[in-house]
Prior knowledge:
This protein is mostly helical. 51% of the residues lie in helices and 0% in strands. Helix 1 runs antiparallel to helix 3. The chain is globular, with a radius of gyration of 14 Å. The N terminus is likely disordered.
Amino acid sequence: MAAKPNPSPNAGHDDALRALLAETLGLTEARVAGFDADTELFGALPEFDSMAVANLLTGIEERFGVLIEDSDVEAEDFATYGSLRAFVERLAA
């Protein structure tokens, strides 16, 4: 009998991050569901401005139960969906 593949241990992070992005940026869930690792965010989406970054950081803290220090944040963390997801996974580990 073949073993069933286990879902990624961070699959819940992905779903929660997508929902948070949709809420914070006012995007449809369908649009955010289409984001892949290379989807550009900050500077590419007009909705993703500096105020959205601040709101997103607050949302990450609340949703993932983490405390984000200024030293934890790099501009590159918001460049693509993949870099943002890696940022969240690093904090929530």
